[in-house]
Every structure is written in structure tokens, then in C-alpha cells.
Design goal:
Layout (H helix, E strand, L loop, with lengths): L11 H5 L5 E6 L3 H13 L2 E6 L2 H13 L6 E5 L8 H11 L5 E5 L5 H4 L8 E4 L4 H11 L1
Parallel strand pairs: 1-2, 1-3, 3-4, 4-5
Helix pairs in contact: 3-4
Length: 143
């Protein structure tokens, strides 16, 4: 699987309309979804780093914390075929940082994690597919 780090922030014109500020780690196995979500988040003012699975997310989270550039929020796909998904990854991130702010994302609305996300250590949830307004609102609530 391919990982990419996208750190560009929104252009000056987009920043004028932004509602968010901070660093977000996005974890999803779908490359196109990572790219679209990254662009949405940059558009509303966030700096974004992407990972394709839980293992890479944990590594990036630890590196950011050690470099004193922690992530404000982690948005995690619940299911990653062949890798650590959101449910497993949040457990590891909580060991690194008990105050991690994580949002679970999934298209599987009948999963128990989606129904009781807070019991698993998540601070918010967003069901796929979601709009830029929906993700912006969840981020405001979590941050």
C-alpha cells in the first residue's frame, strides 16, 4: 500500500473562508478518499497528513508527537482490509497519548463502534459518504 504525506495548506483565498485550524491525520485504505478528504480539509484551513493503514498512522502520530508538532485530530476509517483498522488503531494511539482526539469514519452504520464510538475511545464520528459541512461540524465539536 502506498502512503503519502500531504502538508500543503489552503491557498490565501481559501484561507479567508476557512473555519478550521490545526493538524489532522487521515487514515483510510482508499487512496481516492484520502485525496478528496485531504483537499476538503485543506480547503477549510487544516494541515493534513495521510496514511493508508493503522500501522503507518501510529508511526506518524508518534513522530509528530516527538517532533513537538502533534496532530489535533485523527480521522480513522473503521475497516482496513489486511491492516489495522480504526478500532485497533485507537487502542494503540491511546497508549501513546491518553488525550488523543480521534474521529471514526465508516460506511458500515450497523457496526457497534459506530453506535457507541465513545466507548471505544473516539471523540466523534462521521458516516460515509459525508459532506464538507458534516466533517467541518464534527471537527469543530471534537477540537
Amino acid at each position: 500500500m502506498e502512503n503519502e504525506i500531504i502538508t500543503d495548506t489552503a491557498s490565501t483565498a481559501e484561507k479567508a473562508n476557512s473555519t478550521g485550524k490545526g493538524r489532522i491525520l487521515v487514515m483510510d485504505d482508499d487512496k481516492m478518499l484520502r485525496q478528496v478528504l485531504s483537499e476538503m480539509l485543506k480547503y477549510i484551513g487544516y494541515e493534513v497528513v495521510c496514511a493508508c493503514d493503522g500501522e503507518k498512522s501510529i508511526e506518524l502520530y508518534q513522530e509528530a508527537k516527538m517532533m513537538n508538532k502533534p496532530f489535533d485530530v485523527v480521522i480513522m476509517d473503521l475497516t482496513i482490509p489486511g491492516g489495522l483498522g480504526g478500532k485497533e488503531t485507537i487502542k494503540e494511539l491511546l497508549k501513546i497519548d491518553a488525550n488523543v482526539k480521534a474521529i471514526v469514519s465508516s460506511g458500515y452504520s450497523n457496526d457497534p463502534v459506530m453506535a457507541h464510538y465513545d466507548k471505544y475511545g473516539f471523540k466523534g464520528l462521521v458516516a460515509k459518504p459525508f459532506s464538507i459541512e458534516e466533517i467541518a461540524q464534527v471537527l469543530i465539536e471534537v477540537i
